[in-house]
Amino acid sequence: MQIPIVACVLLYANLALGAPGTLMRRQRAAERLAERKLSRSSNILQPAENEVAVASTGNDTAHPEYSSNWAGAVLIGSGYKTVTGSIVVPTPKTPSGGSSSQQYSASGWVGIDGDTCATAILQTGIDFTVRGSSVSYDAWYEWYPDYAYDFSGITIKAGDTITMTVTASSKSAGTAVIENETTGQRVSHSFSGETDALCETNAEWIVEDFSSGGSLVNFADFGTVQFTGASVNGGTGVSGATIIDIQQNGKVLTDCSTSGSSTVVCEYTG
């Protein structure tokens, strides 16, 4: 049972009986939770507008697709039930030309559907956010088109190894699991009876410029995100995947590729 957002905020405030700093941290956590439930969401792949030809960067991997919000690799097929991959958590930075007073974010996740199948996405991942010298991370789960929800009970810092797994037990049910291999923490969420059905035809390893309040957030310089141990249904890796890069306002911001059968690498180039 979900607690109403207002009640959740009051609960955090009432529990804050310790030092003022504890009260402030709990209030901020409640505010972030309320804001996320109202507005944070991933989106299906959005083709880039006004796509322009891009000169080769020396990367041998073909780039048949550009998107305004997704970068990474997508397998297109059928019967995709489980998708997994691990990343080392990056330290996001304010992009060149950005303002230290503004907030910039990116998200690394694994998922099922959302490219050629637009009805739903089962996904889980990590958000990376920077404002000035302050960096924060959130672990979340989502059954799109519903909003994303934060996991509790897991801490994340730069350099941690995070394994993300989604499993579809049917086209309307499944699980999302995040494990912090560095700390040993593990969190999960189960979905059931979802009205927006999966197709089980796309498997993804994605760095996303996600949405808040209906618009793309300011995209962070995430450095490099490398998905390792990328697998589908416990075996099939990323061989043959479509590579996608983010292109906004005629500028390509990422350079993604696959390496071997189980690694996807995305570099911020904006």
Structure description:
The radius of gyration is 18 Å and the shape is globular. The protein is mainly β and 270 residues long. The strands form three sheets. Strands 2, 3, 5, 6, 7, 8, 12, 16 and 17 form a nine-stranded mixed β-sheet that branches. A hairpin with a 2-residue loop joins strand 9 and strand 10. Helix content is 11%, strand content 44%. Helix 1 runs antiparallel to helix 2. The termini are far apart. The protein has two domains: 1-41; 60-268, Sandwich (Jelly Rolls), CATH 2.60.120. The chain is built from two helices and 19 strands. It has helices at residues 5-15, 20-39, and strands spanning 40-41, 65-67, 70-76, 82-88, 103-112, 121-131, 134-144, 149-150, 161-170, 173-180, 185-191, 202-208, 211-212, 215-216, 224-232, 242-248, 251-252, 254-259, 263-268.
Mean pLDDT: 85
Shape: globular
Relative helix content: 10-25%
- The CATH top-level class label of the largest domain: Mainly Beta
The name CATH uses for the topology of the largest domain is: Jelly Rolls
Major sheet = 9 strands, mixed
Say which CATH homologous superfamily of the largest domain is assigned: Peptidase G1
Percentage of residues in DSSP E strands: 35-45%
CATH architecture of the largest domain: Sandwich
Please summarize what this structure is.
By secondary structure, the protein is mainly beta. It is built from two helices and 19 strands.
